[in-house]
Amino acid sequence: MPAAPAPPKSILVVGAGCFGAATVQSLVDGPYRGHEHLITVLDRSHLLGTPASDAASFDYNKILRQDYTDPFYAELAKESLKRWRGPGYNRTYHECGVMMGSSHSDAESARYIQGSLAVNSLPGMQAAGLKAYSLDTPADIKQVYGRAVTGDFEGNIAYYNQAGGWADSRMAVVDVLSRVRARGVKFASGEAASLLFSADKKDVKGVTTKEGNEHRADFVILASGAWTGALVPEIAHDLLATGQTVGTIQLSAEEAEEYATIPITLLLDTGFYCFPPNKDGVFKFAIHDGGWLDPQVQTNLPSMPRTALTVGCERQQVPEAAKQALLRGLRRVFPKLATKEWLQSRLCWYTDRASGDWLIDYHPSYPSLFLATGGSGHAFKFFPVLGDLCLAGIERRLTPQQASYFSFAGDADRIDKSRGETALVRKVLEPLPIKAKL
């Protein structure tokens, strides 16, 4: 088994999003302190030190919560929230609390609500002065929204966790990238198109970009999110690119004030979730479910991202069915907002694994290729601790429990149930015109 990379070995990190930025931060704080110049970050973005504009982390905000039924993730999220509140991250974090709800009729989601509340009520699970508590009636649910006008919440099971909120994800990632760049980490622009192999084809030595440029290194880390499957098609089935629907509304100053103190809302039975407005009065809402696929017949890939940067999709069209699902969510939670014009809608592309666990492991065939991906729609909340996990994986010191979650082997029987009964229902986008795919 080859040794983990250390100076003077060079490292190429493909992807400047959540996984890439976090991993580089831990590398330069650890074995590459004083040798930062040996690390190069390659990203599709034309603006060095910023994730690509269609990356999942390039967004107004992401939910930060510790609401899991699995104590492993709940404990990890608790530690992550502790770091979000501290230096280096707290300027992007807004702790507004989280309302977790579901219709009683969705048995799987209702069980998740009960289980998550039980875990978050355990001794030691809450930061000082914070608590999680059940919302037993519609009136209890409405109370956590203050003066904001809500739906009636009849027939819902819910609880409120004072721990949690949201982060400006774009700013958080750029902050980390700026710090490591200032320390000497190199950045390059280009879209990785294929791996560069050793002469005997038994190892990876870098990548070639669509522009034809070669980027070589002793060790390669793929942190390329939903685009990873194109680089390692042999495992694309385990790293499924799914498009999740997102909408935004521009609120007036008066509306922004009305909704300013609302909590994060997450309805597990439909996957609908929404945020308080940001400093610019932008209200974001979305669906977290099985998502949309864009199968690639020519390359035999199960799905690849289709974004506003995809040729032929410059004005990305969100499927009508997806828009209607978002509207149903708005009517259920904030009916007044359901009549307003939208600022934008788009598909945010996740990298889903069936288990919902991330992939932090060496490629089984190439000893110098490491994968840090498979966020499955919930990795960003762990941004402050994610790099340490990836570094532990690189140095082969993940605990047996961590390895059981984040390795290729993992636990084949574990299925992500956090999205309720919609978790495994995938929808397929209409094919693009042939000329648009050229």
UniProtKB/TrEMBL annotation:
One of its GO terms (molecular function) is L-pipecolate oxidase activity. Keywords: FAD, Flavoprotein, Oxidoreductase. InterPro entries: FAD-dep_OxRdtase, FAD/NAD-bd_sf, MTOX. Residues 11-389 form the FAD dependent oxidoreductase domain. The keyword Oxidoreductase applies. SUPFAM superfamilies: FAD/NAD(P)-binding domain. The keyword ATP-binding does not apply. Its cofactor is FAD. Pfam families: DAO (PF01266). Belongs to the MSOX/MTOX family. This is FAD dependent oxidoreductase. It comes from Leucosporidium creatinivorum. The lineage of its organism: Eukaryota, Fungi, Dikarya, Basidiomycota, Pucciniomycotina.
